[in-house]
Amino acid sequence: MSKSDLIQPDHGQDAIAIHLVNKDSFEDWSKSLSAGQRAALAAQKFDGSGYQVGIVPDGDGWFAVGGVADPEELSSWCMAKLAEVLPEGTYRRAEGNPGPAVHGWLTAQYSFEKYTKPENPVGPRILLSKEVKAIGPALSEAHAVCEVRRMVDTPAEDMGPAALESECEKLAKTYDAKLQVTKGDTLEQEYPMVHAVGRAADRKHAPRIMHLTWGKEGDPKIAIVGKGVAFDSGGLDVKSAVGMKLMKKDMGGAAHAIALAGLIMEAGLPVRLHLLVPAVENAISSNSFRPGDVLKTRKGLTVEIGNTDAEGRLILGDALTRASEEEPELIIDFATLTGAARVALGPDLPALMTRRDETAEALIEAGKACDDEPWRLPLPEAYREWLKSDIADMNNAHGNAYAGASVAGLFLDRFVGEDIEWAHFDTFAWRPFAKPGRPKGGDAYGLRASWHMLQRRYSAG
Predict the structure, then answer these.
(1) CATH code (residue 46)
(2) With 0-12 CB in 10 A as exposed, 13-18 as middle and 19+ as buried, what is 254?
(3) pLDDT confidence tier of residue 459, bands split at 50, 70 and 90
(4) Are 207 and 251 in contact (CB under 8 A)?
(5) Is there a single domain that holds both residue 28 and residue 171?
(6) Choosing from 3, 239, 296, 457, which is the catalytic residue?
């Protein structure tokens, strides 16, 4: 059963009722129950706390009750635990429509089964809603999140640069978009930093950059850019075994960009879209780029390599330069760029950097409204000097341990065209601990915030 079957229009068909309560309302609500029903909930230690699930016998059948923070104002995740633990069946919220909780209901039923099958599979939990017009957009959004998860969860051998190219090809075919793929000698000439970072990989994982264009020429131009480092060994500044363990997720920025482009095209947003995905493997071989090398760039700047493990900003530099050449009014990039962002904000909050206050405010407001809040970090002018080089225009890594995420953002800023509105997400793309509706593994952070902001800005109708 596909995701599209998990939420269906409510036409009064048979369904199991779900009641949502919190600790404050539970006592009054339970007064309408029989003594036996109250005893059943007491035996399950149900008191209305968040994410609790109770099963209540009711004649020959039963109904469910879920604990939430506020039954009057649901969040994306209020019904996610219910979707994870209830038996297969069809359900409806007893006191009204599920509203935004549809998202968690859908994403809670994601599972990554490419290489194994669950021992005790559970059938689909279907939720009914009378908000029929909201079903399609909710399905699209949940599908985009699950696509990010799928791509990030897939190991690097099966989600290398060629596989990322295939993901872009699927988008182009689905939405009648134009896709240009640059690799080989042309890549070396036109995108020298992308080539340099990826040249050590074998032919199967050879570097490339994908450039997808869609939409009417006269519509506002926007560019979405995603870091596609399919695996990051660290290069010659090799990572530790622990540091390398999760590096299949280093293409998480590309996954976000591809998913966001899909949402834009599916909704028919009135924009001229440019999607750019530089895709490489940062491998180790006799022709790896080296610490101390000076690389040419598409923009014409020269970059001294202070650290080969700061490679994501290099490939993004060339991609942002190309995006800027289209003179878009807005560029959004996604990248699993720095450990410093994770130290500062933890795994759940994507770091957001923007040139303009209004850009940050729009993204933060949209993120709060859909439970995908980013957290803004600064781009301090005072730290630009930390990227100075004695022999090149700039260095790719600063020599101290301070403000790593912001300094990486300042590096990228050099490659974004002057006066272009720009937002940079430094996202983890990984959930180390499961939460209701959000299993451990690959995950999307900042995707929904960006999508809701774009919808508000360009009105999908």
Answers:
(1) 3.40.220.10
(2) buried
(3) confident
(4) no
(5) no
(6) 239
In sequence order, the 6+-apart residues with CB closer than 8 A to the CB of 226 are: 251, 253, 254, 255, 256, 257, 258, 275, 276, 277, 333, 334, 335
Q: What is the DSSP letter of 115?
A: S
- Determine the Cα–Cα distance for residues 259 and 253; give it in Å rounded to an integer: 10
Q: What is the pTM of this model?
A: 0.97
Single-letter residue type at 348: D
Q: Which of 82, 109, 136 is the last residue in one of the domains?
A: 109
What does the pLDDT look like over 161-174, one tens digit per residue? 999 999 999 999 99
Cα 15 to Cα 59, 61, 126, 248, distances in angstroms: 15, 11, 9, 41
Catalytic member of 313, 342, 414, 431: 313
Beta strands 61-67; 16-21: pairing state: parallel
The number of beta carbons lying within 10 Å of the beta carbon of residue 88 is 11
Tokens of 159: 């989600």
pLDDT tens profile 297-307 = 999 999 999 99
**How does pLDDT run across 386-410, given as a tens digit for each residue?**
999 999 999 999 999 999 999 999 9
Give domain status of residue 4, yes or no.
Answer: no
Q: Is residue 99 domain-shared with residue 226, that is, in the same domain?
A: no
- pLDDT range class, residue 1, cuts 50, 70, 90: very low
- 171 and 51, same domain (yes or no): no
Exposure of 129 in the CB half-sphere (CA atoms within 13 A): 24
Is residue 100 domain-shared with residue 210, that is, in the same domain? no
Q: Do 155 and 61 fall into the same domain? A: no
Check if 435 is active-site: no
Domain-embedded: residue 54:
yes
- How many of the other CB atoms lie within 10 Å of CB of 307? 16
Domain co-membership, 97 together with 209: no
The pLDDT tens digits of the residues spanning 339-385 come to 999 999 999 999 999 999 999 999 999 999 999 999 999 999 999 99
Domain residue limits at 28: 15-109
Indicate if the pLDDT at residue 460 is higher than 90.
no
Region of residue 77 (phi > 0: left; psi between -120 and 50: alpha; otherwise: beta): alpha
CB atoms within 10 A of CB 147: 21
The secondary structure of the chain in percent helix, strand, coil, rounded to multiples of 5, reads 40, 20, 40
Which ranges in 154-234 belong to alpha helices (H)? 161-175, 184-190, 192-198
Backbone Cα Rg of the chain: 24
Matching residue, tokens 């633990």: 85
Catalytic status, residue 272 = no
